[in-house]
């Protein structure tokens, strides 16, 4: 599975961004997909995850602000990020769990700055 992430950029605090992850194959065959992020000097962490059954889980820092969704017709998984904070600045990575394998896309940079 190849993953292509897009939608990063520069946004002011309180603003919104929508990240998209396009998969190279039909995503309903993928057990789960998620978004992770890695800030400078920190470990990569889970932001949000959605399963093939549409169950979702979020990091505490993302709850109430971020929404993950999947579009099976377009083979994409999206992350809508609202009320962005300075601490949301990071490289965001898309991930897919298929069978026993885990795939990663190249990251997309999100910078929250005034």
Task: Provide a descriptive summary of the structure in words.
With 114 residues, the chain is mainly beta. The protein has no helices and 11 strands. The chain has strands spanning 3-6, 9-11, 17-23, 32-38, 45-51, 56-58, 66-71, 76-81, 90-98, 101-104, 108-112. Strands 2, 4, 5, 6, 9, 10 and 11 form a 7-stranded mixed sheet that branches. It has a 4-stranded antiparallel sheet with strand order 1-3-8-7, with no helix packed on it. A hairpin with a 4-residue loop joins strand 5 and strand 6 (56-58). The relative contact order is 0.33.
List the helices and strands and how they pair.
Blueprint: E1 3-6, E2 9-11, E3 17-23, E4 32-38, E5 45-51, E6 56-58, E7 66-71, E8 76-81, E9 90-98, E10 101-104, E11 108-112
Parallel strand pairs: 2-11
Antiparallel strand pairs: 1-3, 3-8, 4-5, 4-9, 5-6, 7-8, 9-10, 9-11
Brief rundown of the structure:
This protein is mostly beta strands and 114 residues long. The protein has strands spanning 3-6, 9-11, 17-23, 32-38, 45-51, 56-58, 66-71, 76-81, 90-98, 101-104, 108-112.
Keywords:
single chain, 114 residues, mainly beta, seven-stranded mixed sheet, four-stranded antiparallel sheet
